[in-house]
Amino acid sequence: MANRCVHLLSQFTDNEKLPDKFDFPTNYEPHYLAITASKELQKHIEKTHHLDEKGRMYGVLIVKNTLDELGFLAAYSGQEKEHDSYFVPPIYNRLNPNDFFRQNELELSRINQEIETIVFSDKYVAIKELVEKYIEQSQKEIAEKIKVNQMAKKERELLRKNLSETENKSELEALIRQSQTQKSELSKLKKSWKSKIEQVRNNLEEIEAKINELKTKRQKLSKQTQKQLFKSYHCLNALGEKKDILTIFKEQLSQEPPAGTGDCCTPKLLNYAYQNQLKPIAMAEFWWGQPPATEIRKHLHYYPACRGKCEPLLNFMLQGLDVNENPLEKQMKNGKQIKILYEDEAIVVVEKPHQLLSVPGIKTQNSVLEQVKTIVKNSNGPIIVHRLDWATSGLMVLAKNKNAYHHLQKQFLKKTVFKRYSALLEGEIFEQSGEINLPLRVDLNDRPRQMVCEKHGKKAITKYEIQEIVNGKTRIYLYPITGRTHQLRVHMAHPRGLNCAIVGDSLYGKSASRLYLQADRLGFLHPVTNENLVFEMKPEF
Questions:
Q1: Does 389 qualify as catalytic in the annotation?
Q2: Which of 207, 228, 249 represents a domain boundary (last residue)?
Q3: Residue 417 is part of which domain span?
Q4: pTM tops 0.90
């Protein structure tokens, strides 16, 4: 192959079996040819990207040219000032010094510098401090004056009791004049301070008006630049059609793309392949280097394309290719069935197998709720009280009427329900027990993945207790104090948690035959009898 970005697979032979269809990019297991190409790429990365540097995503795309010759393309996420020609170029080079983007960036930097110059100027700082000083001083003087007036008022009231209006008219009039004088003095003091503060505030507002004017100008230019940038990224698909990413997002989601859209590995790889008449065969993306502070990314682990930035682009770019069905959707058609563990007039307790939804989804109605509905003939129920992830097996309680639902719901809200999970971790944990406290929120660019976020995350607490270590893996009991989405999975896998993913966790660790996580013990008060009920389910693994 004469193309400088196409690399030969050193271990490839003509007898290698190629995949029948292209990978479903947001949910796939890398083909061994893509893994082989990834290892070739890693040899190159070792020369330029040290492990202690900030990590990033890299990707490979197995391709075939018009002569049926195989090779692979390589890409990295983001853009670099010094582009390594080993990798495919960006879809649009926004770092070109003569480009509008770089020119606008310089103008935005100038505006930022102007704002900072004003904000940190001696004049602005002095006026702000003076306003604060005047407010503090005025409050102090006014409070002292009010206190003096109140003490004088009490003294006047005592004097009035001992004075007769006929005999001591002049003294009474003097007390009235004193009261009026003190009220007038307080009013003048307030007006005086108000005038002084307003005068300084007017000076402050003049400066802040200039700052706000610059901020508005910055926001307008930034929005205009981003929109123009999105229009400059032109994506191809296998049918030879071309669309800019702004149009793609508008058509699919009726919204503008997130920042950084178009600079991830897979869109770059596909675009270059189409531009050079190369047929995509298989792909793989992996993380190299240090993990980010919030997301869970492990060195050399393979990951799917992100959903927030890439999925809409790939929905367009894969048109014309024969693509595998989403494995998740195939698994949802597995016909898994629940087992009724306990039932009475108020509740139903079931054993949920892994890979079964708690409630109906977009792609399938098969779920715990729908199955219980066919079994329990009750017009008032069943009603879901809590849920388990699709991939998690375990115990669930459902209410058969509204009274039972409200009673159970209160127990879950007050955190009086006992919940224990069994899990198997990919590694050895030697601290016998402990607590993990890491706030969580959804990754807006890659739903349903969750991320640790101190600023916007919701409180999430998990207690744990080690059971045993067998063959380099740890059996563990988990006790979620809160019930955040993917809480146990993130708390196990995150470097600030146990830094040891649950076996089979395809989102935060490595895929396996299943997710080795089960809600194996559930305890609560019966909503009618108030009896303490405890149920156990033997782990499926």
A1: yes
A2: 228
A3: 329-536
A4: no
